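Archive entry. Fields below.
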Amino acid sequence: MTQSPDPDSAEPSCTPEEHIAKPARKPLVDEVSLETASRLFRAIGDPARLRLLSKLAQGEMCVTELAVSEGESLSTISQRLRVLRSENIIVRRRQGKHISYGLADQHVMDLVFNALAHASERPVSMPGFSSKSEKEDLT
Amino acid sequence: MTQSPDPDSAEPSCTPEEHIAKPARKPLVDEVSLETASRLFRAIGDPARLRLLSKLAQGEMCVTELAVSEGESLSTISQRLRVLRSENIIVRRRQGKHISYGLADQHVMDLVFNALAHASERPVSMPGFSSKSEKEDLT
DNA sequence: TTCTCACTTGAACAATTGTGCAATCGATGA
DNA sequence: TCATCGATTGCACAATTGTTCAAGTGAGAA
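PREDICTED_STRUCTURE:
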């Protein structure tokens, strides 16, 4: 997969004078955390699964409820829940004949709401930077 | 793509008595925000791209620096940056002959650090729920 | 203007991921 | 015990995504 054969050979070919400085930037986080975090994001990064999460954020629901609510088959919903559960995003418990799902913890709920909030707005501004079009203030 | 033909026909086949209540749960967020948020997550949900973000979180860098630091080709890095930029996660500006990239805003930075923090720990506990193994306290 | 450097883009292939059907599991009730 | 209901899983197919090479762009130097 994608891997740096030698991550510490950070010796840019562009001369230091052209940049601000060059303090040999370190990875900041270990590869395992990076992998874990990205798997978490990818699990949430699907409209169908995120919609499930937004419903579970209001309280636990059983698979049948979710299936009817989504207009999808039991199997389809179950598969999506499986992905979310494999990343410890949601948890389940049996309730009589049904199995209820809920968000794993407040941490996850914050993440979901944070992203949904971020999706509504689009501020994005920083001195000297552009983000709108392709070549806006690139001189 | 994945879409409910009729999202408001939420009438579960399982009887209400078996559940706590059934207040006809609403979508909570609109489809557009859901789509936007999930695209954002998916863009971050890749180890290689998340690693780039973790480096940009320490300050802006030019493409060549990133390429050397990652041990990848310019093209590869540029493609990854393109994905991140298409979701307004990062912004760029020209610095002489080089093009520097940086995180778009504090919002994004919070998201990244939040996830990396989340990846390090694994608390996940809630009354009545299990999250560890498959069938722990299912009955 | 022309050349070169720094970077971007297009396109094709490989790899990963999502979907739906059918078979299966597991708990409850007869 | 057996039948049934709710939910999960395996598998195959389709769709999406990541990677790489080669060609292209655009700003600055000659």
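CURATOR_NOTE: The first strand of chain A starts at residue 61 and ends at 62.
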